[in-house]
Design a protein that fits this description.
This protein is mainly α. It has helices spanning about 1-5, 10-25, 30-50, 55, 60-70, 85-105, 115-120. Helix 2 packs antiparallel against helix 3 (about 30-50). The longest helix is centred in the N-terminal third of the chain and has 24 residues, at about 30-50. It starts with a helix and ends with a helix.
């Protein structure tokens, strides 16, 4: 799991940010696209850690999504036609759950409290 998610949180956090920005702007198309990308990416990574990447080629999304559901992530895709405030709230819950889940599995979130912390990490 660490290998699959290693240093991936900043990229996922960026997708969450794009999703929230689209919701705030009232851009349903962009919000739904970002929600789809976020849920799909995490679903495939979780599935690949359990089944291996070759299994994904033949597995239907509904089968692959079991890992996502079991990890307790909110179903962002189910909110596609709901108010954007609901989708934004789910995106925030997703981010909280992802952070928690990654920490539970020993994954570094690549977050730094200061520039000095970043420098130390880069050494």
């Amino acid at each position: 799991i660490r290998v699959a998610f290693n240093q991936g949180y900043p990229e996922m956090k960026d997708i969450v940010r794009k999703l929230l920005t689209a919701c705030e702007a009232g851009d349903r198309v962009a919000a739904n696209l970002e929600a789809h990308n976020l849920q799909r990416d995490v679903t495939w990574i979780l599935h690949d850690t359990q089944e291996g990447p070759r299994r994904r080629q033949v597995a239907p999304y509904s089968e692959s999504a079991a890992s996502y559901d079991e990890a307790g992530f909110p179903d962002l895709l189910a909110l596609a036609s709901e108010p954007l405030d609901d989708l934004a709230g789910a995106a925030r819950r997703f981010d909280e759950r992802l952070r928690s889940w990654l920490r539970e599995h020993g994954v570094d979130l690549c977050e730094f409290a200061s520039v000095e912390d970043l420098r130390n990490a880069l050494r």
